Amino acid sequence: MKPFVTATLLLSVAAAYYIYLPLPNTVCEPWKLMILDAVFRSFMHMGDLAHDLGLSHHIHVINYIVSKVEVKGPQSSKTVQVTDTSFAGVQARVFEPTTQVKEHHLKRGVVYFHGGGWAMGSGRMRSYDLLCRNMAEELDAVIVSVDYSLAPEAHFPQPYYDALKAATFFLRPEVLAQYSVDPKRVAISGDSSGGNLAAAVVQQMAAENKTSTKFKVQALIYPVLQALDFNTPSYQQNGNTPILYRSVMARFWLEYLNGNTSLVPLLLANNHTALDRTGVPEAARAKVDWTRLLPQSFQKDFHRVSPAQGSAQVVEELPALLDVRAAPLLAEEEVLRAVPPAYIMTCEHDVLRDDGLMYAQRLEEAGVAVTRDHYEDGFHGCMVFSFWPAKFTVGTRSMWNYIRWLQEHL
Ligand SMILES: *[C@@H]1O[C@H](CO)[C@@H](O)[C@H](O)[C@H]1NC(C)=O
Ligand SMILES: *[C@@H]1O[C@H](CO)[C@@H](O)[C@H](O)[C@H]1NC(C)=O
Ligand SMILES: *[C@@H]1O[C@H](CO)[C@@H](O)[C@H](O)[C@H]1NC(C)=O
């Protein structure tokens, strides 16, 4: 019996060591978050191990696990009809409320892009599936959850083009009519990398001004919007806070832009935007200048990291770092002026907090109406953790506030 007890004890200590993370006490349900993070980290470690052994790309390993555990078939319920389909060649899951109020009754519409670092996840995952069902029911809206293509197979601009194609297709008068959607009441939305795609697509449509139908509002949930500064106060403050670590976000960017992932340390040092990097125009630097764009209360005592000397021609080699379609925070003010009213949700314990806050500021300066919804106890990804077994009170709260905002503004 003794070796068994010893082994159990040792394993428990090892597990506790693996799970335990010092977390700020202001984050929602820290113990639950530690466990969730340990699960995520173990997937990441498995992915990295398989990758290093040359067995499979690390993202494929993670997506394989997700597809087995999380992805659901299209199951209609009494209230919502669910269909997997293709919008101009892009996969999408459509959620249609079945309520027949009266004839010729038109519904709202929402085009939604899931998160996952442009590499992971799917609109067919349980969490997004449930979110979209709730939205369809509560908002009496047709929800189009777009499965744009992902890294490592697809790199920028492919996922962006997929998002643009699906959104443009849905806004076609005959498509809206087919789904009984009111052309005056369609929103574009997404979380994390999906928020990036939503912001980029709505900017492009505003700049082009080609489609007869426009999105009425945009709702961005902890969006990722820039890759010039990996040392904003929120990147500095939350670099080691689950579930999105600073180095993981830098790696997602490099994979999205098809850069070499060995550049992660360079990006984290802001060496790509060092002051001797003449490829970064002053105008672009100004658009991510958090010392101007963030309220003092978020700047705290953090200092700008802008080294005098950089180490490589990263921006010249990866021009997409300066492309507004990849980094919507860099858009010109004329473009911002033409985008629809915005809801921007941010979380205190999130490296991307300041991406969202800076964008809110730039939109307001361009005269766009912005609702800022900030969660002091929120962490990156929390809104989709509102369902058992990863149910956080901040997840449930933020999800219903988001839906309520759409209820009032769409
Ligand atoms: C968009 O185009 C319409 C007509 O084509 C025009 O009336 C409108 O002013 C344009 N809007 C912007 C922001 O350019
Ligand atoms: C990435 O960079 C590393 C280190 O500079 C180099 O060894 C490797 O060959 C590069 N990979 C690709 C795909 O260019
Ligand atoms: C950043 O650039 C400096 C100056 O060239 C160099 O000494 C340093 O090693 C670089 N850091 C990284 C992480 O590349």
TrEMBL record:
<feature type="domain" description="Alpha/beta hydrolase fold-3">
    <location>
        <begin position="110"/>
        <end position="268"/>
    </location>
</feature>
<dbReference type="Pfam" id="PF07859">
    <property type="entry name" value="Abhydrolase_3"/>
</dbReference>
<dbReference type="InterPro" id="IPR033140">
    <property type="entry name" value="Lipase_GDXG_put_SER_AS"/>
</dbReference>
<dbReference type="InterPro" id="IPR017157">
    <property type="entry name" value="Arylacetamide_deacetylase"/>
</dbReference>
<keyword id="KW-0325">Glycoprotein</keyword>
<keyword id="KW-0735">Signal-anchor</keyword>
<feature type="domain" description="Alpha/beta hydrolase fold-3">
    <location>
        <begin position="322"/>
        <end position="383"/>
    </location>
</feature>
<protein>
    <recommendedName>
        <fullName>Neutral cholesterol ester hydrolase 1</fullName>
        <ecNumber>3.1.1.71</ecNumber>
    </recommendedName>
</protein>
<keyword id="KW-0442">Lipid degradation</keyword>
<dbReference type="InterPro" id="IPR050300">
    <property type="entry name" value="GDXG_lipolytic_enzyme"/>
</dbReference>
<keyword id="KW-0443">Lipid metabolism</keyword>
<keyword id="KW-0492">Microsome</keyword>
<dbReference type="InterPro" id="IPR013094">
    <property type="entry name" value="AB_hydrolase_3"/>
</dbReference>
<feature type="active site">
    <location>
        <position position="192"/>
    </location>
</feature>
<keyword id="KW-0472">Membrane</keyword>
<keyword id="KW-0256">Endoplasmic reticulum</keyword>
<comment type="similarity">
    <text>Belongs to the 'GDXG' lipolytic enzyme family.</text>
</comment>
<keyword id="KW-0812">Transmembrane</keyword>
<keyword id="KW-1003">Cell membrane</keyword>
<keyword id="KW-1133">Transmembrane helix</keyword>
<keyword id="KW-0378">Hydrolase</keyword>
<dbReference type="GO" id="GO:0016787">
    <property type="term" value="F:hydrolase activity"/>
</dbReference>
